[in-house]
Amino acid sequence: MVENLKNQSRITILIAISIILAVLVVLTFWTTSTALEFSVSVLRQPDLFITNISASNPNPSFGETITISVEIKNEGSTSSAGFMVDLFDNPVVPLTPVPGTRGDLGTLRVSTLGMGESKVIEFTGISWPYQTGEVHDIWGGIDTDDEVNESDESNNTFGPAGILIKPFLVDLTILSITPSEFNPSIGDTVTVDVVVKNQGIGGAGSFDLDLFDSPVNTTPSIGDTGSLYSIVSGLAAGAQTTVSFQMIWQGAGDRYLFGVIDTKQLIQESSENNNIFGPSNIFIGKPEVEILSINPLEPNVVKGGSLSVDVTIKNTGLNHIPQNTYFSVDLFDQFSTTAPSVGDATPNSILIPKLDIGEITIVRFNLTNLQATGTHYLFAIADNNQRVNESDENNNVFGPVEVKVYDDKLGVINSWDSGSNNWSFDASKVTRGDYNGDGRDDIAFMYGYKTQRDVRVLVAKGKSDGTFAAPAPWWQAGAGNWDWNGSKLVSGDFNGDGKDDLSVLYGYKTQRDVKAFVLRSTGSSFRSPSVWWQAGAGNWDWNGSKLDVGDFNGDGKDDLVILYGYKTQRDVKAFVLRSTGNSFRSPAVWWQAGAGNWDWNGSKLSVGDYNGDGKDDLSILYGYKIQRDVRAFVLRSTGNSFRSPSAWWQAGAGNWDWKGSKFLSGDYNGDGDEDIAIFYGYGSSKVAVFVFLSNGSSRFASQGAWYASASGAWDWNRTKILSGDFDGNGIDNFAGVYKLENARIRLFMIR
Q: Can you say whether residue 331 is alpha, beta or left, with left for phi > 0 and alpha for psi between -120 and 50 degrees?
């Protein structure tokens, strides 16, 4: 037992010794590892230095701005944090930057530089404005504020990089070229003064000065030979002198004068890039401003209305009027035929900045609120402010041209008002007809509700006092039974019973399946729509159809006419669907334009018996090109076809806005021949009704504006206009619907 105890003691001692040895090994290993780790940390340091300094131009002129590039590198074993790089000019060598002291040529900060990374940084805008001919030693310092703990702190400066400032002290230039006369006559002697200067810091010896005279604006080059030249014997530093040349021109036109100093390059200068000057522009020969015409856009104006007047001027002289001359063209509106004189005052004046030889320009005057009735005499004066030196100053006055201002022929009668939030102007399609046979035309509305698939027709009956009764329902389609968007609406007496009916050209689905419905009038309502003609699926383009109504064969029953546009809508036909009294015959071609001869998009239709032969004719208001040149064509009916279009009225290029015209027909003077009228919009603020009376054979004669609203009082875009005898006095007048604010409309008559 004692022996066992001894053995256990030995074992315990051995175990304790083993534990102690294990602890010593661990401690030794940890100590060794820590030492190794510390050793590696000491070795991982950046090493910053400059490898090169270079200049964008190592030999600049004094005052020339250059860029100096500094290439830096980190050859250490880890990335560097931010540091400063400074650039020094002629420092004390050896260069030992002091932290916080900046380089006299600049300081840049670099945010970081990776291990082994090189980078080029640029110091820009460096120049030497003096000390020419000297060499400047450029040094660079990296980490000048000693922010980075580097493995080598002894290699942080670099230099020198030499920059030599050019020793050229002379700098010749031309300050101005000034002729004694900028607009001489042919054969005049003109003195041209050229001012030259030596803006360098050293004196110049003898040099040449060339003057170039050219009809084109082309800059000469150094070494070219001028038209005239002079030798300047010398010019001190900072001095200037004037050299004069005498010149005579025998032909009219522009001349461009350039000067070149030291063209033979005898003088070595600090800058060779400022030796050419010009051009100075001379105009040989005199301009001549003449007024060619005064063109009032309307010869007759309603009292209180406005008038646009175009004045055409031309430079008929031998030279142009240069830019920024700003000569005036003045318009005089007076009651006397005595011409005004140059220099007289008028509020109607327009400035013209320039006018080239032979150039024609048109200026437009707008005379507003013309209150004085009677004959006005218009005169115009060119260069009334006498800014142009002309060859003839006695032909600047033009006129007179007569314009008549008269009282309104028509007045406006406001009628039924829907009240706010009761009527949608945009959901209303309107037409006119005598639906109850009382001799007065009425207004019919096709009104689309909500989704515009629930449709009603309402009639506002005309009264003898020029007003209208409130619209009353005459037919209702029923929800979902009719497409308002696919409906084109017209009126006519299709069965010859003395009461006008409605006709709807109706387009289905893709609008290539088309039907013509007639809703016959009972005198107090419209019967249900009946199909009077059907095109058949795919046989007719509803979108390419413009619709109107007239008795084209004189049988007492109104027919349909469709102006139809094919494909690109440049091939156009006029189809007539004659009424039998209970249906329409198949469309017959009564006129064909021929491919490419007619613009369907530029056509607005109206119908009337313009020659009084008992058969209605077709009239088209046609807009050309940009739709500012407009004509009214008449296609007279023979009873079974239309004759070729004949122009019965022409506005003249630029005198009329086709887009702002709503085209109407009616007998406005009661002579039995129907006339045309145009409801004309001046933007969104003013309208006028222009009437053109038929002579019964070949012409619509302009009667001027029979009505014109005050400026700002009427919006053309908010108006649906109709023509008819709404008061039953035997003479056609005008009526329509006007859109007010808050879902509200008003009916009106102009008579």
A: beta
